[in-house]
Amino acid sequence: MALRLEQVSIRLGDWSLIQPLSLTVAPGETVTLMGGSGSGKSTLLSFIAGDLDPLFTAAGGVSLDGAALGGLPPEARHIGRLFQDDLLFPHLTVAENLLFGMPRGARAERLAKVDAALAEAELPGFGDRPPHTLSGGQRARVALMRALVAEPRAMLLDEPFNKLDAELRQAMRRFVFEHIAARRIPCLMVTHDDADVPPGGRVLRLKDGKVAHA
Amino acid sequence: MTRLGAAPLLLFWALPLLAGLAMLLPAAGDSEAWRMALAHPQLWPALALSLGTGAISTLLALALTLTLLAGLYRSRLWYSLQSLAAAGLAIPHLAFAIGFGFLVMPSGLLARLVIGGEAPPQWVTVQDPWGLTLSLALALKELPFLLTAGLGILSRGDAALRLRQACRAAASLGHSPGSAFLRVVLPPLLKDLRWPLVIVFVYGATVVDMALVLGPTQPPTLAVVIWHALNDVDTAMNGMGLAMVLLLTAALALLLGGVALVLRQAHGPLHRLLTVGPSSLRAPRGLAALVGAFALAILVLAMVVLVILSLAPRWPYPALLPPAADGAAWMKVTAAPLWLSLTLSLAAAITAVMLAMMWFETQAPSRDRWVIGLALVALALPQMASAGGQYRLFLPLGLTGTLAGLFLAHLTPVAAYVLIVLAGPWRSFDGRYVAAGRALSASRMRALLAVKLPLLKAPLLTAAAIGFAVSIAQYVPAQLIAAGRFSTLPMEAVTLAAGGNRALTAAFALALAAPPLIAFLAAALLGRPRWR
Predict the structure, then answer these.
(1) How large is the C-alpha radius of gyration of chain A?
(2) For residue range B377-415, what is the model confidence (pLDDT) as tens digits?
(3) A198-207 residue pLDDT tens
(4) What residue spans define the domains of chain A?
(5) Is the Cβ pair B435, A132 closer than 8 Å?
(6) What percent of chain B has a predicted confidence (pLDDT) above 70?
(7) Rounded to the nearest 5 degrees, what angle is found at the Cα of B527, between the Cα atoms of B523 and B528?
(8) Residue B171: inside a domain, yes or no?
(9) Residue B293 located in a structural domain
């Protein structure tokens, strides 16, 4: 179950944001794409997720486990995303947030999955809490679990540790990469912080729309 | 998809509005109409009265607004301004005018409270020949509108935060709070208030329903002269009315253009005032508290008078309370106009919100300036122009005197307000919530229904309540397009106010005031977030 980009390029009018880029992310692997702000790295993630702003024009193909994703709406791609902010839906409880993307099934089974996810996040009993009553680190863990219980076939991380406190950041990195690795899904992360790169992970650097392998 | 999303708004709102305005062009070329208009003996004094009431009410409302904002900026009472503004905004102009009239007339509650004596005082208030009562009522009624606009600029968003920080910086440079407000807050505030001020001025100079109740009669304001001409059975008189509408509109544009020109010239000298250095000018705390209390008292008393009168067919002077209560007037209120007004306004408000939502969801933000610009035009033009044109448009289409025509005529101002109110919250919504929802396998529709709409619940309900309040208060388009076949609450209230039945007039004024209040309360209640 690999995530493949083939000759992906993105333009904004006359401006070439991403020059043709090909990349394969293996199951369980996390590839890090580094670049400054405005380098188009978040735009690339939006393109992969199928959520590109219509202002941009993109070319090239994305496939997951050999199946092309081009033209599919975001919800049909089964690609999980984490953003800089946790983006827990503020009008839903923690449990409701977890249930939001979980595949349909027997209610008891789904609730059991919520409990299991909360236990994994070291937040047992937090299901009925409104998101704003949780600390930043707790919310970040719920956001990851919310993405994972939706059973994604790949993950996209958009500077997910950027807004966390320095002491939380290291613990959160370990938490995220362990869980993604355990699910054997490919993961593409964009960041500008070298410390975010998981140990032994592959790093690509984006500069002026071109990628330099490092 | 994108084209289709824009179609309903363009078809049901923009097209009737623009086509109606286009219908004014033939009227502009009707030389007989112009001859009649210019020969009208009341034209020039009536025009002077219209411009005067518009200008005086606008300047007074602005002075009161600035006193309140300057006096209470960054004070503990700041947030109570929000309640004052909201309460005042909810009362329809016509209902307030009727209550205000009953309050200040010689035998009104005010005279009973402050003068007393055996007989009512000999003062001239309601329908005074100079239009002062009308101007005062307009100023007090527009105060909540300008306050809301000012509070929006000074209380919310990044700009408000930057202004507060700028005030702190000014304080560290030796400016007193009053000096900081004058030099740091006032310039951007006035700049942002310019469109609300234009709307207030045009409204005051062209208002019909309030002028019929409180305004002078010999001569009346030009708006009233026009109104009688537009409602005349003689089509030549209708043509003259439209010519006068164009004349009044041109006079307003000329005056506003002149003011803009003068202000541009005065810009340099005014700006030098900003840099003369720190002063120890004090914020007008006491004055602001006084103005706030006064405005609130008038708003409340105007409504109290209506309640008393609606229950008392007989109220001899100088008793503070009538001898006996009687619900007879209220029995007559639950008639056809009430139900028509309620259903029409509910339909217009819901439709306007749906049309606006479809527009915002399917159109690029860069296109908003067209519809927002059109909405501002709709609100800044005299209503007799847009509604008068629409009458000319609907007549050959067979829409006058029909519910469909009445609905479209109400939708015109309602959708304009809803678009303006919803644009901010909708466009500043953090789209990543929707992206997060869709990454969790939610379809476009589900992300909209389960994520975006619940998070925008409060502004959506507020917009609907505003639309409802705007709709139920419509007098000019209702009277013109109904063509005598239907009667709505404001039409009924204006007719009653001209007659002698005070109890019934008061009851209808309250029937007009209560539904918007209920709508705003319901919106506030239902719009509360799930958690605090």
Answers:
(1) 17
(2) 999 899 999 999 999 999 999 999 999 999 999 999 999
(3) 988 999 998 8
(4) 1-78+153-214, 88-151
(5) no
(6) 99
(7) 130
(8) no
(9) no
Number of continuous H segments (helices) and E segments (strands) in chain B? 29, 0
List pLDDT tens digits, range A109-166.
Answer: 999 999 999 999 999 999 999 999 999 999 999 999 999 999 999 999 999 998 888 8
pLDDT at B2: 63
Best of A43, A46, A48, A51 to mutate (most B CBs within 10 Å, chain B): A51
- Is there a contact between A32 and A158 (Cβ–Cβ < 8 Å)? no
In a domain, B515, yes or no: yes
Q: CA B496, B500, B501, B507 torsion: positive or negative? A: positive
Most confident of A160-169, B236-245, B346-355, B501-510: B346-355
CATH topology of domain A1-78+153-214: Rossmann fold (3.40.50)
- Strand A202-207 and strand A187-191: the pairing is unpaired
- Residues in Cβ contact with A113 at an 8 Å cutoff, skipping those fewer than 6 apart: A98, A102, A149
CA distance B454 to chain A (A): 7
Handedness of CA B14, B15, B17, B22 (dihedral sign): positive
- Side by side, the strands of the sheet bearing A202-207 are A79-82, A154-158, A187-191, A30-34, A202-207, A210-213
Closest chain B CA to residue A48: B439
Phi, psi at A156, each rounded to 5° = -120, 125
Q: Cα–Cα distance between B13 and B32 in angstroms, integer? A: 32
- Partners of B455 on chain A (C-beta within 8 Å) are 89-91
Of B491, B495, B476, B467, residue with least CA distance to B389: B476
Instruction: Report the alpha-carbon distance of residue B529 to residue B348 in Å, rounded.
Output: 26
Q: Using a CB-CB distance cutoff of 8 angstroms, which residues of chain B are in contact with residue A100?
A: 437, 440, 442, 450
For chain A, say whether B440 makes contact (Cβ under 8 Å): yes
Q: For tokens 């990044």, what's the residue?
A: B158
Q: Of B433, B444, B446, which has the smallest distance from its Cβ to A89's Cβ?
A: B433
Position B282 pLDDT exceeds 90: no
Is there a domain that residue B367 lies in? yes
For residue A89, the distance in angstroms to the closest alpha carbon of chain B comes to: 7
Pick from A53, A64, A75 the residue to mutate for testing the B interface (most B CBs within 10 Å). Answer: A75
Average pLDDT over residues B180-203: 90
The CATH number assigned to the domain holding B424 equals 1.10.3720.10
Number of domains chain B is built from: 1
Q: Between chains, do A91 and B442 touch, taking CB under 8 Å as contact?
A: no
Query: Which domain covers residue B425, as residue numbers?
Result: 333-531
Distance of CA A40 to the CA centre of its chain: 16
Question: Cβ distance A141 to A135 under 8 Å?
Answer: no
Point out the residue among B433, B529, B531 whose CB comes nearest to the CB of A87: B433
From the list A54, A90, A100, the residue facing B440 with the nearest CB is A100
pLDDT at B532: 66
Distance CA A171, CA A167 (A): 8
* Contacting residues for B61 by C-beta, under 8 A, at least 6 apart: B138, B139, B140, B142, B143, B145, B146, B200
For residue B526, what pLDDT band results from cuts at 50, 70 and 90?
A: very high
Nearest residue in chain B measured CA to CA from A100 = B440
Contact A25, A8 (CB under 8 A): no
* Chain A residues closer than 8 Å to B451 by CB: 89
Strand, helix or coil for residue B277: coil
Tokens of A211: 């990628």
Query: CB–CB of A56/A11 below 8 Å?
Result: yes
